[in-house]
Amino acid sequence: MASASPRREKLLRQLGVNFVSEPQDIIEEKRIDESPEKFVKRMAEGKRARSAFGKRKEKDIVVVASDTIVVCDKRVLGKPKDKSDGKKMLLTLSNKTHRVLSAVTVAKPLDTSPPYQKPAFHFVRLAK
What we know:
Layout: H1 6-14, H2 36-50, E1 63-72, E2 75-77, H3 83-93, E3 99-107
Antiparallel strand pairs: 1-2, 1-3
């Protein structure tokens, strides 16, 4: 798992999954014209790509990487830097609706397929 998230570790343990946690240190900055959806996908993919597990050749290893962000007033809220910053974020969220976006990538070692796909489906004409 390319994460240090205690919640994700707990979930994998509850599922009975044997795993090793390998947190990835990546720069988590949103690009100027990047949508929150593209940003969270890029962060998850970046963590997967940097994982040493992704460079191993064992066939039984699977790399799981994810990222979660909070969006309020069209702004992505990062991780609070300290207690004061955390308080400011909570006040920003106070009495407002916000979105929580998560992206997950799962890949086998040396997998060159994209981290997500956009399938297209054709729906046949239905009789009235």
